């Protein structure tokens, strides 16, 4: 899974505003999100343990996880979440729920196609796709 390693810069997205709205992000914050560039820095030495730094504007979040082991982290809005990242074929797939069990699961699927990292996110029936180019 070394092919995920590197720095990836978001070049475009589809349905991102609707997805953020479904997550409960307010109109002003959604407007700001449209103007900021997201960068993912993914590192793994062994294909099982990963460090992912996500930077959007001045805000950076870092998540460390091991494939198949449950982790706890915070959502974009700071809500405590728990979930697991797994490898499904060539895809990295994470499924997360709020710690209190309320709300829909969030699924994040990352794959590499034609030198792009494509990240598909789903909550309920709302889907979003973000396209990242390697820096």
Describe the structure.
A hairpin with a 2-residue loop joins strand 9 and strand 10. The chain has helices at residues 16-23, 27-35, and strands spanning 6-14, 38-43, 49-56, 59-66, 71-74, 80-88, 91-98, 106-113, 116-123, 126-134. The model has no long low-confidence stretch (mean pLDDT 93). The protein has a ten-stranded antiparallel β-sheet. It contains two helices and ten strands. The protein has a single domain, classed as Calycin beta-barrel core domain (Lipocalin). The radius of gyration is 14 Å and the shape is globular. Helix 1 packs antiparallel against helix 2 (27-35). The protein is mainly beta and 135 residues long.
CATH superfamily: Calycin beta-barrel core domain
User: H/E element string?
Assistant: EHHEEEEEEEEE
Tally of contiguous helical segments:
2
Report the strand count: 10
Distance between the termini: 18 Å
């Amino acid at each position: 899974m070394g092919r995920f390693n590197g720095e990836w810069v978001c070049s475009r997205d589809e349905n991102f505003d609707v997805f953020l709205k479904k997550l409960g992000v307010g109109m002003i914050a959604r407007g700001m999100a449209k103007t900021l560039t997201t960068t993912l820095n993914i590192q793994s030495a062994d294909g099982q343990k990963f460090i992912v730094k996500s930077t959007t504007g001045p805000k950076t979040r870092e998540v460390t996880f091991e494939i198949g082991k449950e982790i706890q982290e915070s959502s974009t809005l700071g809500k405590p979440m728990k979930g697991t990242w797994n490898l499904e074929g060539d895809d990295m797939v994470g499924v997360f729920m709020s710690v209190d069990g309320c709300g829909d699961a969030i699924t994040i699927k990352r794959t590499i196609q034609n030198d792009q990292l494509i990240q598909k996110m789903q909550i309920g029936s709302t889907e979003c796709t973000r396209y990242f180019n390697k820096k």
